[in-house]
Write a structure and sequence with these properties.
By secondary structure, this protein is mostly beta strands. The chain contains 6 helices and 25 strands. It has a 20-stranded antiparallel beta barrel. Strands 11-14 form a two-stranded antiparallel ribbon. It has a two-stranded antiparallel sheet with strand order 12-13. It is globular, with a radius of gyration of 22 Å. The termini are far apart.
């Protein structure tokens, strides 16, 4: 299923809206701490939100009842978000409550402290979460699929000279677990009291994924995979049957890294740094990522830009855990030109020297407009580029606010940047607050889900609703 570029462009510009009930881990200290996404005003309240609306999922209509209380108590924050969707036959949507985990998804977040505090911890959905310089975990999301979203956890400890970052994709079952302790040695041992030495940071990252599909190698051809065309006329589609694995690597799949960053310029409104990461993907290969990054603020404008160069041989991929990892880990509905598992992409990366580059930029203007873009390109891996795009207008115009989150993989050129198909994930939200206690919203999601037989497929969701917010 595919939406043409013109339709996607219309969605992007007319439905400017994204509800980020997620964790965003800052990628740097200093001015870089200003790289935090401003929350949608509809999600910032101390009280209870309740409302009604409709949800159209792949063309099927459901009536929606929505409840979302959230409050703070002695440094703790609690947010819950539940939906009851009833079909035209009056029955509750089966997919919303067909397993015990669905009740756990009522937890929007439970947090302690705030992101700028020395200690901050949060469980809930994860979107645009990165660890360290993002060379291993970058813009990761465990909620890219609405029906398959997970309750993960993040934490950050910063004691000045030492600290640590932590992430887990799922608190209820074994999945992706990441830890990165870091140290600023010249703050721990102030032999030289100079800003250059004081801002040298050294870290070490370990990322392991215990998901049972992670270590599978399944080439997308016979005798491992069989493709067949089923259906009639316009309803014909490719049917994929996985016959066997070609190999099963040792579980868990593990990625380790060492990183160091050095600030070469620092002032009140401008700073620049260089960094380098050494990465080893266990049972595969190693690589090096070198980057330069600058941040500056002019009045109400803040801009952060980074450029990276990846240097590696065969069997290596930088930014392995990214925005589309949860879909790429295992996709038993992949077309002939795609991969069944992410580990197979890794194993098939044998085209000589790898190498690639990544560009990232974050812009904030007067806290009324925010934009973030990341583009990853591989020199010798055709059609494997990845783009993450985020736009936010928390103060769009008067009572209007919203934003867009868009991720696309396997990009084959400029004309392939924007489309809605099985290589894209899109979430938009446009909200209107006519009165203090009333918020009307339109949410559009283009994600993926699983059929009853466990096969992945794209999913389109349109959800207009009206919420009453009682604040206390």
């Amino acid at each position: 299923m595919r939406f043409p570029t013109t339709q996607l462009t219309l969605v992007l510009f007319l439905l400017v809206g994204l509800q980020l009930t997620s964790a965003h881990i800052s990628r740097a200290q200093g001015l870089g701490e200003r790289m935090k996404l401003i929350e949608d005003p509809s999600s910032v309240y101390h009280g209870i939100a309740a409302g009604i609306g409709t949800t159209i999922i792949d063309g099927q209509l459901f009536y929606l009842v929505h409840v979302a209380p959230q409050f703070e108590y002695k440094g703790w924050g609690f947010g819950f978000d539940g939906n009851f969707r009833f079909g035209t036959d009056g029955h509750l949507r089966k997919k919303d409550y067909d397993e015990t985990y669905d009740y756990l998804r009522w937890i929007n977040y439970i947090s302690y402290g705030h992101p700028e505090d020395n200690f901050y911890a949060r469980i809930g959905g994860l979107s645009y979460a990165s660890i360290g310089n993002g060379t291993i975990v970058d813009d990761y999301s465990n909620s890219s699929s609405y029906d398959e979203r997970r309750i993960g956890g993040t934490a950050r400890l910063n004691l000045g000279s030492v600290g640590a970052e932590f992430l887990t994709s799922d608190i209820a079952r074994k999945g992706l677990i990441v830890a990165r302790p870091f140290v600023k040695p010249f703050q721990m041992f102030p032999i030289i009291n100079n800003w250059f030495f004081q801002n040298i940071e050294i870290g070490a990252t370990a990322a392991v994924d215990f998901d049972p599909n992670t270590p599978l190698l399944i080439p997308n051809h016979l005798p491992y995979v069989e493709h067949d065309s089923v259906g009639l006329g316009d309803d014909r589609h490719d049917s994929v049957t996985v016959l066997q694995d070609s190999a099963r690597i040792k579980s868990p799949l593990s990625v380790y890294g060492l990183d160091a960053s050095v600030m070469f310029w620092k002032s009140k409104d401008f700073e620049g740094r260089v960094y380098g990461d050494y990465i080893q993907i266990a049972q595969f290969n190693k690589g090096v990522v070198l980057g330069v990054r600058t941040s500056f603020a002019i009045d109400t404008l803040f801009l952060d830009i980074r450029l990276e160069r990846s240097l590696f041989k065969d069997h290596f991929l930088p930014n392995y855990y990214n925005s589309l990892y949860e879909r790429d880990r295992y996709n038993n509905s992949a077309s002939l030109h795609d991969f069944i598992t992410k580990a197979t992409i890794l194993a098939d990366s044998t085209t000589g020297d790898g190498n690639g580059f990544r560009f990232q930029s974050f812009l904030s203007v007067n806290e009324k407009f925010q934009a973030s873009i990341s583009y990853l390109h591989f020199d010798n891996l055709d059609n494997q580029d990845l783009m993450d795009l985020y736009l936010s207008t928390p103060k769009l115009y008067g009572p209007f606010f919203g934003g867009i989150g868009y991720d696309r993989r396997n990009i084959s050129g400029f004309n392939d940047l924007f489309a809605l198909d099985d290589r894209s994930i899109l979430t938009t939200r446009l909200s209107y607050r006519p009165l203090k206690y009333i918020i009307a919203s339109m949410i559009v999601r283009w994600t993926f889900t699983k059929n009853d037989d466990g096969r992945l497929h794209t999913q389109a969701m349109f959800e207009p609703k009206v919420d009453f917010v009682w604040r206390f």
